[in-house]
Amino acid sequence: MALMITDECINCDVCEPECPNEAISMGEDYYVIAPDKCTECVGHFDAPQCVQVCPVECIPINPAHVETPDQLMTKYRRLLGLDAPRP
Known about the structure:
Structural class: alpha+beta
Strand order of the largest sheet: 1-2
Distance between the termini: 31 Å
Strand content: 5-15%
Number of domains: 1
Radius of gyration: 13 Å
Number of strands: 2
CATH class: Alpha Beta
Order of helices and strands: EEHH
CATH architecture: 2-Layer Sandwich
């Protein structure tokens, strides 16, 4: 389940540096989360750090990118290169 940032975002800049996967960036009007990089902090923290620091609570689960905890862990391992094929 990747997260998403809604249009309620006030561009306060606190979420972007908290993301260990660098999945958050400035979009056209407000911050956005790249679903292919978001693991909801699985592998890094017990809870999504962006959600923890957001002052307006505008970071829900993205219904278009629902993933199980195992899928999020697989994504985390892939992002770190831990599951890369060996030559």
